[in-house]
Amino acid sequence: MRQYDLPSLYRSTIGFDRLFSMLDQVSGEAQNYPPYNIERVGENAYRLTVAAAGFAAEDLSIEVKENALTLRGEKKVENREPKTEMVYQGIAARAFERRFQLADFVQVTGASLENGLLHIDLVREIPEAKKPRLIPINGRPANDQAIETKRAA
Description:
Layout: H1 6-11, E1 13-14, H2 19-23, E2 36-40, E3 45-51, E4 60-65, E5 68-73, E6 96-102, E7 106-114, E8 117-124, H3 144-152
Parallel strand pairs: 1-6
Antiparallel strand pairs: 2-3, 3-8, 4-5, 5-6, 7-8
C-alpha cells in the first residue's frame, strides 16, 4: 500500500485545505528543491518565499494557469572560459520546476527577487456574489436600529 506524506500536501497548497482532491494529484516523489516558506501576512493575503540563491531575475519564470502556480528556474549557460577553478560547489544552481495548487479566487499580485529569495505575493479575493450574506425574514426588522426607532416613537 502506498503511503502519503500528508504534511507535504498542506505545504504545497495555498489558501485552502482540500485534502481529498489533492490525493489524486500526488505524484509519489517528494519535491524538496528549492526550499520555500508560505506565510500568512493578512486575513486573505499570503507570501510564498522561495530560496533562489544563484539565480538572477532573468533565470526565473512564474506562470499561473487556472489554479496552478508554476515556478521555473534555469541558469543561462555562458560560453566563455571560467575565470576560476571551482574547488567546492555547495550552492546548488540546478534547474528546477515547482508547482503549487492555488485555491479558488487566489491571485498573484506581485513578485520580487532580493537577497537570493524570490517573494511571490498572493491575495484571495472572493467576489461579492460568492460571499455569504444575511437574508432578512419578513415580519422581522432587518437590524437593531429599526427596533430602537419603534421603541422611541
